Amino acid sequence: MTTRRRLQDIYDRLFEHFGPQRWWPAESAFEVMVGAVLTQNTNWRNVTVAIDRLREGDFLRFERLAALAEAELAEMIRPSGYFNVKARRLLNLLRMIGELYDGEPERMLTDEIETARARLLAVTGIGEETADSILLYAGNQPVFVVDAYTYRICSRHQLIDEECDYRRLQEVFMDNLPRDAALFNEYHALLVMAGKHYCKKKTPLCERCPLWEV
């Protein structure tokens, strides 16, 4: 079976099992950008607490958040964990948007994909997964997001070798699927669900998984 066919089969099975995931849960593109940084090295439940605190203070707007001092922002996002580091990373991101896009996040999100991606990756604290999450989920750009669940599932199903890096794994999806943001959005979310519920790191539940024998 070709890689293209296998990827489609995996998607079909996961979608039939889990249904539509409707990611990213947010009220605005800017909120998605903030959440993409806050979700680094923590679970989504903690992120929602931090997001709610920012929303209550009306800080989910570029000009309001960018005006905060680092210590103030760190205290507000404390529930997300590693709050001092994440406050610095958020402000680094906002500074880049201020300098290169005149403080208009929408301009970055609609910029040419490779340009926007390169500028995001040049921000200290923004890695490939975070940059691509911002482009896909906030900007609706057709970029496939790769995370630990993607690596684990693809490795166990022998779609990649042990030396496969982020970009090569991303290309497996982007070269074999239609360049469609909605599809990439749903696919990544479904892989996360499969990783959380079945393809676990230490105790995988293979025989219960919808991908069993794929």
TrEMBL record:
Pfam families: HhH-GPD. GO terms for molecular function: 4 iron, 4 sulfur cluster binding; catalytic activity; metal ion binding. The keyword Iron applies. Keywords: 4Fe-4S, Iron, Iron-sulfur, Metal-binding. Gene3D superfamilies: Helix-hairpin-Helix base-excision DNA repair enzymes (C-terminal), Hypothetical protein, domain 2. Residues 38-197 form the HhH-GPD domain. SMART domains: ENDO3c. GO terms for biological process: base-excision repair. CDD domains: ENDO3c (cd00056). InterPro entries: DNA_glycosylase, HhH-GPD_domain, HhH_base_excis_C. This is DNA-3-methyladenine glycosylase III.
